[in-house]
Amino acid sequence: MLPGRTVFAELMSHVSPRRFRTCVDRYGGDYKSSRFFCWDQFLCMAFAQLTYRESLRDIEACLRAVQPRLYHLGIRARVSRSTLADANETRDWHIYRDFAHGLIQIARGLYAHDPLAADLAETVYALDATIIELCLTVFPWAHYRRRDAAIKLHTLIDLRGSIPTVVQITAGKCPDVAALDDLVLEAGAIYIMDRGYVDFERLYRFTLEAAFFVTRTKKGIRFRRRSSQSVDPSTGLLSDHVVVLATVESRRHYPQPLRRVRYRDPETKKCLTFLTNNFTLPALTIALLYKSRWQVELFFKWIKQHLRIKAFYGVSENAVKTQIWIALSVYVLVAIVKKRLNLDVSLYKLLQILSVTLFEKMPISTAVFDIGPKVEDIATVISCSYSTYDRTLVLRTILMLDEVHDGRLFNSVQLSV
User: Fold this and answer.
1) What is the pTM of this model?
2) Average pLDDT over residues 241-265
3) pLDDT for res 2
4) CA atoms of 56 and 83, how far apart (whole Å)
5) How far apart (Å, rounded) are the C-alpha atoms in residues 378 and 187?
6) Full residue range of the structural domain in which residue 390 is found
7) Claim to verify: residue 339 and residue 380 sit in the same structural domain
8) CB-CB contact of 327 with 155 (8 Å)
9) Greater model confidence, 84 or 113
10) Torsion 33-38-39-44 (CA) sign
11) Which residue has better confidence, 393 or 37?
12) Does position 3 have pLDDT exceeding 90, yes or no?
């Protein structure tokens, strides 16, 4: 790290300026801009996400309070509320969508070897959607119900690292299953979905393109059993059948056999029935894979709690989508930094630390490093495992290193002795 560089500057150093410039030039984002460029807009909005700013006026006040430091962060223009509002309203949101996709590809490479709930070499995705509620009088373009407005985030996440790989922002009325129409399937990958995505005509495309799906059945679907496999009831498995659809209409949409696995959850005692077109994985693995689908629900809960995607700085469709894509870019960027710096903290804790240290001149690893628990462990070991003479020698050694830890290490060990 360069001396004197702030935490925010180090965080943004993990962004490729060339990639960002490519996205801007693709849509002419800086056309006729002489002062406030797309990069300035991204930095201001990223600052707002990381520090939980409430409004454009809030962003303006906070950034002007540290005006002398903004140049070193890359913000060359003077930040004003009206300029930022105009940028959010007029600059194409596709710029930040394409930029987020570039960060996603980097993050997926970094998390490619993370473990899954089941020991598999294949890529495993979870697909789901969530509603973001809006006010109809403020966002009339997002009409959802008679008196409500909303948009819907259809999200496909890679379960290795919980990285969102595909995000579609649609009207709130758009059904969840419609996301399958635009989904580019990856041969050999496994897609986990809830029963809202059971549409046999759409699911048959997975079989045609050599991809696999795992989902739950809906009530009323009729099957005919062709064969059965033995299962171990002690694992919670109830049955493992090869079935075909019984009705002529359903069989026309999905003419191939399916695999039906019935499983009783040992915790909730609830009986679940899964459908899949994968006939090679063990039945218990199918059940464990579906259980890992909960990660996408946790992802939605996390971004709604810790990112600004429920309250918006602008009211137009372009401003809303710009804010959502920049928020997702910040999420993925923090995940990249966590992996590259090998930080042993959760994303939540890392975001909390970044929110209060953005303008501190220190490495991110220093801001995250916490000596507290290690000091207590050292003190306990010394007090329990060494004789009086040995402890005196250890204390002298610790005293020589005391300056490194601002006195905390020596004081803690001395108290234990």
Assistant:
1) 0.83
2) 94
3) 52
4) 10
5) 51
6) 372-416
7) no
8) no
9) 84
10) positive
11) 37
12) no
DSSP state of 122: S
Distances (CA, A) of 258 to 38, 120, 179: 50, 21, 22
Same domain, 358 and 407: no
Measure the CA–CA gap between 256 and 240, rounded to whole angstroms. Answer: 17
Q: Is 106 exposed, middle or buried (0-12, 13-18, 19+ CB in 10 A)?
A: buried
Residue 238 and residue 256 in one domain: yes
pLDDT tops 50 at residue 371: no
Is the predicted pLDDT of residue 312 greater than 60, yes or no? Answer: yes
Residues 6+ apart with CB under 8 A from 181: 202
* Domain assignment present for 303: no
Residues 401, 356 within the same domain = no
Residue given tokens 């030039």 in the structure block = 25
Cα 255 from chain centroid (whole Å) = 36
Mean pLDDT of the chain: 86
Whether residues 389 and 325 fall in one domain: no
Bridge partners (DSSP) of residue 350 are: none
pLDDT at residue 186 is higher than 50: yes
Q: Residue 133: helix, strand or coil by DSSP? A: strand
Contact in structure between 238 and 271 (CB atoms under 8 Å): yes
Interhelix angle for 408-416 vs 388-400, to 10°? 170
Domain boundary among 248, 263, 292: 292
Domain boundary among 292, 327, 350: 292
* 380 has pLDDT over 80: no
